[in-house]
Amino acid sequence: MSAPAVKPIRDSLYEQPGPKTRRRIVVATGIAAVLVLIGIALIIRQFYITGQLDPKYWLLFTRWTTWKFLLTGFMGTLKSAFVAGVLALAGGLILMWGRLSKITPVRWVARAITEFFRGVPSLLFVYFFFIVMPTVGIKMDSFWMITLPAAMSAAGACAEVFRAGVNAVPAGQVEAAKSLGMSKTKTMLLIQLPQAIRFVVPTLISQLVIVVKDTTLAYVVSYADLLQNGRVLIANYDALVSVYLVIAIIYIVLNYLINKASVAIANRSGVKLIDVSKVSS
Amino acid sequence: MTEQIPAVEFRHVDKHFGKLHVLRDINLSIMPGEVVVVIGPSGSGKSTLCRTVNRLETIDSGEIYIHGELLPEEGKALAAMRSKVGMVFQSFNLFAHKTVLDNVTMGPTQVLGVKKKEAEEQAMALLARVGVADQAKKVPAQLSGGQQQRVAIARSLAMRPEVMLFDEPTSALDPEMINEVLDVIVELAREGMTMMVVTHEMGFARRVADRVLFMADGVILEEATPDEFFSNPKTDRAREFLDSIAGH
To answer: Chain A: nearest CA to B35, how far in angstroms?
Structure first.
């Protein structure tokens, strides 16, 4: 028996277009494409007029040292984002568990921390570790001054994602576990969490995109991430637009790949649990 | 032996869902080896009655005893009691992320502490008994409803339960799959399993029941042998109910 294909949501939400609609779509697509091309042409023209296309702004990208420097920054971004991501997952799990606790004070504390992490902008956390902590004699490495804030913000979000996932596990699964005599902890670890994680893996990975973007606050604490190293290049070569453009493209590609990965994983894990052909009305 | 002690006993059990009085002063004993079939219109409280036995539904007042022991209200004692009471659900509720084999070994290995290899041997024997041994490596979503429900029965049996509860085990099945599940239940009844079965399958009730309970509005209106009940119901309510389904 082959695994059933998961129907894309778009196909379920929209009707197949008829002949008139198809014609309209073709015309609209053509007009939109022309407008986009005009927009791009205008931007390039503006760059030309203001002298941004001057070779002196772009020749630095022919040098290996430039790329090596950017690569070092890129690795810094990856390292910080990866560690923050792992911490956020662990922290999110703990916070979620706390919020589902039977003990009221535990639930309150977990809720308060979750809301705090979620509600406060990452930049304030960065300032806290950068400015406040040293005043009480705690000096941290700049890596942690950017990684911890990114992790904290994401942990709050992850806690909510995990909670949504656990709540999405059908009640019957828990009842079946209970009826076998399983304890609450075992039910959570063996039945609820494994299924919940499958539901939310795509969302969690998308969360990683936000972590990556949060790490750009690294310039505040002079941690050598991609953006910070880019700023150094700008200062050295006086090449603001070209460097920012290249860096933006690198971020877009990275985050695009992360999204691709989340979709691929969603398709793989979704098939096993949900058989659309058997979901009756 | 323990002939005198009921396997399940309800004493003055009451339950409300908000304003709705779903169980009204239920008194009932199920003796070891007995098969009690509960029938009645939807909303009569029959599923709730079944689910109170392993406390998937709590009760407001009264007592439930299992083999003479008061049903514990929480914690390890409740879990231990639940492990001795098998339950088969209307919607199967197989663990969606586990293979068929793992579904059946889960209880013995995680709750009873049985070794994995031993649990797997036992599970394969049970799966063979309910006729789905060849599906052992699949996940539940790949099985038909009838196969899933038979796996669910095997999962319960793997705990070597003293009592089995069936909460409308065939109501979610396509018609052609109902009999393959009912046959397994009949077989269990023949082997002397103590059972409480909530069902809408009247032919099956007649075949398998030692005693039929007819429930309506949270009350057990009639208790009789299947022959007595189906040929000569005493209450108007039961007569209406039987007439309404006889048209099929």
So the answer is: 20
